[in-house]
Amino acid sequence: MKYRQLGNTDLKISELSFGTWAIGGSWGQINDRESLKALEIAMENGVNFFDTADVYGNGHSEELLAKATKGREDEIYIATKFCRGGDIHSPDTYSIDQVRAYCENSLKRLGRERLDLYQIHCPPLDILKDGKVFQVLDQLQAEGKIRHYGVSVETVEEGLLCLEHSNVRALQVIFNLFRQKPLEELFPRASEKGVGIIARVPLASGLLTGKFTNEHMFEKDDHRHFNRNGESFNVGETFGGISFEKGVDLVQDLLWIEQGRKHVSSAALRWILDQDAVTTVIPGFKTAEQVQKNLEAVHVPPFTVEEQQKLLTFYQTKVEKHIRGPY
Known about the structure:
36% of the residues lie in helices and 14% in strands. The chain is built from 13 helices and ten strands. The model has no long low-confidence stretch (mean pLDDT 95).
């Protein structure tokens, strides 16, 4: 495993890390024993960073991380998020008292005294423009409850706005072979500002594993069923904003990337790691097997300049026009 500095912070984190939305809920049936086994395998292979949120299974993923990392709090870094447990459009959700309560509840579930990275969880643009939430986070940092803070954003515009605040240390962005827009302006600007990039939805909710057919049926409690067209939250969080059927078709044009890189998924993750601005990529998982398969990405060959250009052309000519929702 290789490690990269998270922007201008003191955190050196594994270039391939993991998100824990799936083991919390909203991805179909889960098994806590399997989840804990998968977390252990990740750590055994050098993963020292996990991303979670207070709303993943109503705190369940945070509780699982507490069990998995007990006794290793100083060596395993955890990033969590807040605001979506309330009305994300209400200024009250971002008041010092409310954010402190969110923070303390996460700390309790995680069994920690301080959060390594605390992120605003995809807030509306108006909240970011108002900016008061950043002062609240400055206060919590001064109180010693959080080490660093960042923002999980839905759009490039939101990301650029966050970069105007000097204490924002990380941006979490939807970024994958189907979603390359951040490369144009956001990533270069973040690098200039010394802000780390956490790439989420890297496999487009599983589309970039190449395992699905148009006939696949998802469980009713899986967001790939109930948010397929953005019914519950931003459509970009599900399949990167591509319709499922179109995504299945587009993957056929990408099968060449697995040559010499084991799987489409390990190749798709490798492509993200090849982008200099990216600090870490956080695929999700539900099983130990999925963790092991994703870990292969750190060992496969990088993409050549010619291959990178081919993938950019693929995005510009075949994918971009099919992305739905603001990004």
